[in-house]
C-alpha cells in the first residue's frame, strides 16, 4: 500500500509505502525509482501498527515496484494497479498525482 502527501515547493511528493506483516521479516522496496535495487530501500518495522514502512520523494507520474520480503519479490496485494513485466510476472504500479 502507498499513500501520498501534498506536493512540496520542489514539486516532489512524499510517498509512504507500507507492508503489513509480523516482526522478524526483512522487507524492502524495489522499483524504477531505485533501479530495482532489492536492498537500497529497507523498510522499518513499526510494532504498534504491525507494518513495515519507508518513504521517498517522487515527481508526479507512474512507478512500477515490488516488495522484497525475505528475498522473495512480491506484488503489493493491497494495490489494485499492476502491469505485466518483461519476465511474465506482475509489477505493482504507484500512480503519484
Main pleated sheet? 6 strands, antiparallel
Q: Assign the structural class, choosing from mainly alpha, mainly beta, alpha/beta, alpha+beta, or little secondary structure.
A: mainly beta
What portion of the residues fall into strands of 2 or more residues? Answer: over 45%
The low-confidence runs, each spanning 5 or more residues with pLDDT under 50, are none
Q: How many separate helices?
A: 0
Question: What helical percentage do the residues reach?
Answer: under 10%
* Spatial gap, N to C terminus: 15 Å
Structure write-up:
This protein has 97 residues and is mainly β. The strands form 2 sheets. Strands 3, 4, 7, 8, 9 and 10 form a 6-stranded antiparallel sheet that branches. The mean pLDDT is 94. The two termini are 15 Å apart. The radius of gyration is 13 Å and the shape is globular. Strand 9 (82-84) and strand 10 form a beta hairpin. It has strands at residues 2-4, 13-20, 27-31, 41-42, 44-46, 51-58, 61-69, 72-74, 82-84, 90-96.
Amino acid at each position: 500500500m502507498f499513500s501520498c502527501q501534498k506536493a512540496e515547493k520542489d514539486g516532489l511528493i512524499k510517498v509512504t509505502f507500507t507492508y503489513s506483516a509480523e516482526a522478524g521479516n526483512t522487507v524492502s522496496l524495489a522499483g524504477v525509482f531505485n533501479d530495482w535495487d532489492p536492498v537500497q530501500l529497507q523498510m522499518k518495522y513499526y510494532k504498534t501498527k504491525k507494518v513495515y514502512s519507508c518513504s521517498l520523494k517522487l515527481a508526479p507520474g507512474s512507478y512500477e515496484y515490488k516488495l522484497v520480503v525475505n528475498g522473495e519479490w512480491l506484488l503489493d496485494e493491497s494495490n489494485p494497479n499492476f502491469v505485466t513485466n518483461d519476465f511474465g510476472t506482475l509489477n505493482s504500479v504507484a500512480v503519484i498525482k
